[in-house]
Specification:
The chain is of the alpha/beta class and 278 residues long. It is built from eleven helices and ten strands.
Length: 278
């Protein structure tokens, strides 16, 4: 085992190799670290929990006619005529169809209409309420910051690093809870939507969308520097991991992803051990 001589960065579930790398690299000089959000910085997926939150309130903020987003166009000409329970089922069914038939990026893009009509204040409220709720879910589905990542962020801050979140999830939703890590709101890069004249989300995504190569383009546009460290758990993050000076892949059991990362000399970190709350 290796150790932090100052006792300020506990190893916990980090592998010896990765832990040693951080101890050697981080104090060398201030750098830029970019973290994916779902299943990387946090345990499980909060993006879909934000979908749950807006759907659960009945989509009262979205336009009446949602027909262009669904295969059954006639049914969705006036979504307010659909009972909430049925509406929830049909939305998740369509989302699953989009993912299966057109791929993950297309599926994620499809979700943007669910947030149209929300103001920043409304989105923050929904996100904060959902964040508090999902932390209390059963252990295997609970959503909360990974303790190892919070330790690492604290270690980075002690050495004056610049820390950002780069996520495919809605930017405003993640900004609302970024203080949990703590990362400033203005250092969250995610799915950003154009605003209407009234200051409401339009449902139209501002490019580049932060998925795959779009994460790299967004880093170039919004941050303007090559990350010294980047963290991610899927092929969505692979371009960002390759773009960074050193990538760290979270291994959630996809052998193709891990092989691709190993071929690029990206460090591999097994998914962190779960420690139940006491």
């Amino acid at each position: 085992m290796v150790g932090d001589p100052l006792g300020v960065f506990p190893q916990k579930s980090w592998t010896d190799k990765n832990y040693r790398y951080f101890l050697e690299r981080v104090p060398e000089s201030p750098g830029l670290a970019c973290f994916d959000f779902d299943n990387t910085l946090i345990r499980n997926d909060f993006g879909e929990k934000m979908m749950d939150a807006v759907i659960g309130e009945g989509l009262v903020h979205v336009p009446t006619d949602l027909s262009k987003h669904f295969r059954d166009e006639d049914l969705w000409l006036d979504h307010r005529t659909i009972p909430l329970e049925k509406k929830e089922h049909l939305i998740w069914e369509e989302y699953a169809y989009q993912l299966k038939e057109f791929g993950i990026e297309r599926g994620y893009r499809w979700t943007s209409f669910l947030f149209s009509g929300l103001s920043k204040t409304e989105f923050y409220r929904l996100s904060k309420e959902a964040w508090k709720k999902v932390a209390e879910f059963p252990a295997h589905t609970a959503v909360f910051p990974q303790p190892e990542m919070k330790d690492l962020i604290s270690f980075l801050y002690r050495h004056n690093w610049d820390v950002w979140i780069v996520t495919a999830s809605p930017e405003l939703g993640v900004m609302a809870i970024s203080d949990s890590f703590p990362i400033p709101e203005d250092k969250v890069v995610g799915m950003r939507q154009y605003l209407t004249m009234e200051g409401l989300l339009s449902g139209i995504i501002e490019e580049p969308y932060t998925y795959g190569e779009g994460k790299v383009l967004a880093i170039q546009k919004r941050i303007g520097r090559i990350p010294d460290l980047a963290f991610g758990d899927s092929f969505n993050d692979f371009p960002m991991l390759c773009y960074a000076k050193k990538g760290i892949a979270i291994d959630k059991g996809n052998p193709e992803f891990i092989k691709a990362c190993l071929d690029k000399e990206i460090l591999i970190q097994p998914y962190f051990s779960f420690v139940p709350k006491t």
